[in-house]
Amino acid sequence: MTAPTVVKQQAGPRPAAGPAPARRGRRRARLIALLFVLPALLLLGALVVYPVLFSVGRSFFDASGSRFVGGDNYTEMFRDPATLKAIRNTTIWVVVAPALLTGLGLILAVLVEKVRWATAFKLLLFMPMAVSFLAAGIIFRLAYDEDPDKGVLNAAVVSVHDAFKGASTYPTARGRTGSLTQDRDGSYRATASAGDTVTLPMVGVLPKDLPGDASPARTAAARKAAPGELRGVVYLDFTPGGGGTQGKVDAQESGLPGMKVEAVRDGKTVASATTAADGSFRFSGLTAGSYTVRLPESNFAPPYQGVSWLGPTLVTPAIIGAYLWIWTGFAMVLIGAGLSTLPRDALEAARMDGANEWQIFRRITVPLLAPVLTVVFVTLVINVMKVFDLVYIIAPGPVQEDATVLATQMWLVSFGGGNDQGLGSALGVLLLLLVIPAMVFNVRRFRNSQR
Predict the structure, then answer these.
(1) Which residue has the higher pLDDT, 10 or 233?
(2) Which residues, in sequence order, are bridge partners of residue 281?
(3) How confident is the model at residue 293, as a pLDDT?
(4) 3 has pLDDT over 70
(5) Least confident of 46-55, 113-122, 125-134, 388-397
(6) 3-class SS at 2?
(7) Is residue 256 a contact partner of residue 234, using CB atoms and an 8 Å limit?
(8) 3-state DSSP: the chain helix, strand, coil percent, rounded to 5?
(9) 58 inside domain
(10) Higher confidence at residue 398 or residue 166?
(11) Prediction pTM value
(12) What's the whole-number mean pLDDT along residues 18-46?
């Protein structure tokens, strides 16, 4: 009896899974992705979306927030002189700062390639980016101080000015009343004749401010003038410790060296001299007659104090200068990164064809770097529209309105004394509308570069 034959049926291909499991898998993946993104979305909504929507709504209400005023805040915004000045200053920032930064960054990026210590140079220029805007504002507020003893810029300007033009030795000096006559231009005069010895007493100079080579004037005042000669002495009519006679040269009274003296006759200067260490001067070769001995106003001119960097005229360029110091390294590094990706064979081919470095820079380097330069420029435009810290810190209170931009004006109107958050919200919406086109442009360029 034979065993029954068992026929094994070979398993065929499994049927394909239906659409339901695939949909469940996709939903699960989306749910997991949403869970990961949810914290960022919540944070974005709380810090960006909600403030934007709230500001847009608040801009349609009055200062108290209780009465709907429609577009009145936007109308008022363009009638307010301070806001119009803020718009003007913001325009200056947008036109000047990004262009200067992009140009400086391009020039430095090209030059750094030829420097041996390129990395250290880049680090040095990029270092200001590590300084907060608050600290940078304080640094430049001190650097721009008008007092040359505090402001480093004015100290340099004053040093250069005095090196070429000189400074008056006795800015606080004035003539002794009754002995000298003061003219409208600030000069002093006395009348004398050829053959006389004239004394010109001065006051208002502290003994400690006298030049180191100043010596007593008593001997000089006692000298007699020869015929055709006019002598004199300019001295400090003050005796240390008290005593002495006004208008008379006493034994302990010092001459004033370095004082310019002129002899004037018939309205013309016929002779001039500079006083010696004892304050003496001498005019020789004079004809007989009366002369006016004059101490020009240049002897008493106040010292040059430098440039008013933070005055109404220069405050905005001064703040832009501080901004350039901070952001030049940023522009240089980004442009340098783009420069390192340029095809070197194109540059070498141009050199072999006889092109000089300026032609290569203008016709090859700049066109190839155009996308990078555009991104840097637009990024800086977005940044300067929001500048606040430097303007608020560097500009002194009296010129704050002359330096204000939209961001500072928004804060001043809302919280800095204006207490009109409706108008401040309208300014914030205006600033947002100005920034959005630049942001959209940058995002589109980024997407196109990714493709």
Answers:
(1) 233
(2) 232
(3) 94
(4) no
(5) 113-122
(6) coil
(7) yes
(8) 55, 10, 35
(9) no
(10) 398
(11) 0.74
(12) 84
pLDDT, mean over the chain: 87
Q: Could you tell me if 367 and 403 lie in one domain?
A: yes
- Least confident residue range of 17-31, 76-90, 207-221, 394-408: 17-31
Task: State how beta strands 230-236 and 280-283 pair.
Answer: antiparallel
Tokens of 397: 């209170």
Q: Among residues 300, 318, 353, which one ends one of the domains?
A: 300
* Separation CA 82–CA 404 (nearest Å): 8
Round to whole Å and give the CA distance between 378 and 102: 10
Coil, helix or strand for 233? strand
Q: What single-letter amino acid sits at 106? A: L
Give yes or no for a contact between 171 and 136, defined as CB atoms under 8 angstroms apart.
no
Residue with tokens 């006795």: 170
Specify whether the backbone of 313 is left (phi greater than 0), alpha (psi in -120 to 50) or beta.
Answer: alpha
Q: Which band of pLDDT confidence, cut at 50, 70 and 90, is reported for residue 1?
A: very low
CA distance 245 to 327: 65
On whether residue 33 sits in a domain, the answer given is no
Element (H, E) at 135: helix 133-143
**Both structure tokens of 408:** 């500072």
The pLDDT, as a whole number, for residue 440 is 86
Q: What is the pLDDT of residue 327?
A: 93
Cα 289 vs. chain centroid, distance in angstroms? 58
Contact 237, 200 (CB under 8 A): no
Burial code (b: 16+ CB inside 10 Å, e: under 16) for 164-195 equals eeeebbbeebebbeebbeeeeeebbbbebebe
Domain boundary among 259, 282, 300: 300
Please choose, from the candidates 153, 149, 282, the residue with its C-alpha nearest in 3D space to the C-alpha of residue 223. 282
149 CB-near residues (< 8 Å, 6+ apart): 155
Tokens linked to 60: 């349609």
| Per-residue pLDDT, 7 | 47
Q: Which two tokens stand for residue 256?
A: 């004033």
Query: Range of 248's domain?
Result: 174-300
Which one, of 283, 242, 245, 276, lies nearest residue 259 by Cα?
A: 276
Q: Does some domain include residue 168?
A: no
